[in-house]
Design a protein that fits this description.
It contains 14 helices and 17 strands. By secondary structure, it is an alpha/beta fold. It folds into two domains: 215 residues, Alpha-Beta Complex (Quinone Oxidoreductase, Chain A, domain 1), CATH 3.90.180; 170 residues, Rossmann fold (3-Layer(aba) Sandwich), CATH 3.40.50.720. Strands 3, 4, 5, 8, 9, 16 and 17 form a seven-stranded mixed beta sheet that branches. It has a six-stranded parallel beta sheet with strand order 12-11-10-13-14-15, with helices on both faces. Helix 4 crosses helix 12, helix 7 runs parallel beside helix 10 and helix 8 packs antiparallel against helix 9. The chain binds nicotinamide-adenine-dinucleotide (NAD) and zinc ion (ZN) (2 copies). Nicotinamide-adenine-dinucleotide binds next to helix 1, helix 5, strand 11 and helix 10.
């Protein structure tokens, strides 16, 4: 089959690789019809290279049609339409039972001391072959795939794999008081969808921050007030000015480790990408090479006693944090990978009866898988108005 594989920092290629096969009785093989490109893939493309091997298949936002099922699979049959959550989770352990699918105890990675495996996401998360490919092997075939109805186009359901539950969790964890104010930092797909979900769930005001024209424009079209990072030296002060001097009740950081700015750390992330793997792994795990610009802005801007919801991914182990300010302001912090299946039952009704979240128009680009290397480059540079890419293998 054809698959998007990683070969080095900013070097991904579409290769011919072996088809996946059934390995466990409850495996299913899915023929992928649509598969998303995510901001998280950009971390693999650039700074997380030390945790990948050449040939690793990327991608964690797939959907398609069941092609083959193992002997123990009773919940699905060939021909069924399914979306695959990005967490590889068992739905049977203590963590899964609490809706903490990203912490699944069956697939935790003890060698690295990390949480549950993810499709297409580095040795830290199980090095599981990903879904930017023609076929994908999916374990836990009786409970992991989300069966979706035939009829609406793929894009109606595709974002259940990641964007929708991730944004839903970001908003849930932000715990905005009814009618309160939420600032969303970063208007990639995750921030964009968080802003829409927040508005739908009764948040009074959404103030969205980014530095890319069409991303700010898109958030405004969906009812958010916007602040352009490029126009202000002190964005936290701007956010306070907009909220009676107090700051927003809650702030979502939908940016993560590659925040714009902080040139010294950017250089260090580059160095980590060039060092031999074991040395770079150690540097990332011990020295902390995240760029914390967005997180510092969140801490600065949030009102006293307010809540910060970190949904952007961070990876360094010892990043310096302004603990004094966090403690002094009595801030509530929540974070983590999305627990995809935790939120699907709440989201599905918004997809089958019309399209209130605008998912049908959410992707800005639909491309053949063969175009993936060029799409990674353009998405990283935010060129060609690229906001969300869906590949059609
Ligand atoms: N927790 C999860 O389960 C989960 C799931 C999916 C994605 N993510 C993470 O969410 C983040 C966003 O993903 P995405 O797909 O929307 O990616 P993206 O890269 O398209 O979006 C990031 C946005 O942040 C903006 N930005 C950069 N620096 C900023 C700053 N200092 N202040 C405000 N905005 C800034 C960029 O212009 C960009 O629009 C990534 O870190 C990704 O890894 C987390
Ligand atoms: Zn993703
Ligand atoms: Zn589990």
């Amino acid at each position: 089959m054809r698959a998007l594989t990683w070969h080095g920092t900013r070097d991904v290629r579409v290769d011919t690789v072996d088809d996946p096969t059934i390995q466990e009785p409850d495996d299913v093989i899915v023929r992928i019809t649509s598969t998303g490109l995510c901001g998280s893939d950009l971390h693999l493309y650039d700074v997380l290279g030390p945790f990948l091997d050449p040939g690793d298949i990327l991608g964690h936002e797939p959907m398609g049609v069941v092609a083959e099922v193992g002997s123990a699979v009773t919940a699905l049959a060939p021909g069924d339409r399914v979306v695959i959550p990005f967490n590889v989770s068992c739905q049977a352990c203590t963590m899964c039972a609490q809706g903490l699918h990203s912490q699944c105890e069956t697939t935790q990675n003890h060698e690295w001391g990390t949480a549950a495996s993810l499709f297409g996401y580095t040795k830290l998360y199980g090095q599981v072959p990903g879904g930017q490919a023609e076929y994908l092997r999916v374990p836990f075939g009786n409970s992991l795939p989300i069966a979706v109805p035939d009829g609406p186009p793929d894009d109606r359901f595709l974002f259940l794999s990641d964007v929708l539950p991730t944004a839903w969790q970001a908003v849930a964890y932000a715990e905005v008081p009814r009618g309160g104010t939420l600032a969303v930092l970063g208007l990639g797909p995750i921030g964009q969808m968080s802003a829409r979900i927040a508005a739908r769930r009764g948040v009074g005001r959404v103030i969205a921050v980014d530095l890319v024209d069409e991303r700010l424009e898109r958030a405004r079209r969906h009812g958010a007030e916007t602040v352009d990072l490029r126009e202000h030296d002190d964005v936290a002060a701007v956010l306070r000015d907009l909220t009676d001097g107090r700051g927003p009740d809650s702030v979502i950081d939908a940016v993560g480790m590659e925040a714009h700015g902080q040139p010294a750390l950017k250089a260090m992330q580059k160095v980590a990408g060039l060092l031999p793997d074991p040395v770079a792994q150690k540097l990332i795990q011990t020295a902390g090479v995240d760029r914390l610009g967005a997180l510092h802005l969140a801490i600065d801007a949030v009102r006293r006693g307010g809540t910060i919801s970190i949904i952007g991914v961070y990876g360094g182990a010892a990043d310096p944090m302004p603990m004094l300010r966090l403690f002094d302001k009595q801030v509530q912090l929540r974070m983590g990978q999305a627990n995809v299946l935790r939120w699907v039952p709440e989201i599905l009704p918004l997809l089958v009866d019309g399209d209130p979240l605008g998912v049908d128009e959410f992707a800005t680009h639909h491309l053949p898988l063969e175009d993936a290397p060029a799409a990674y480059a353009a998405f990283q540079k935010k060129e060609q108005g690229m906001q969300k890419v869906v590949f059609r293998p």
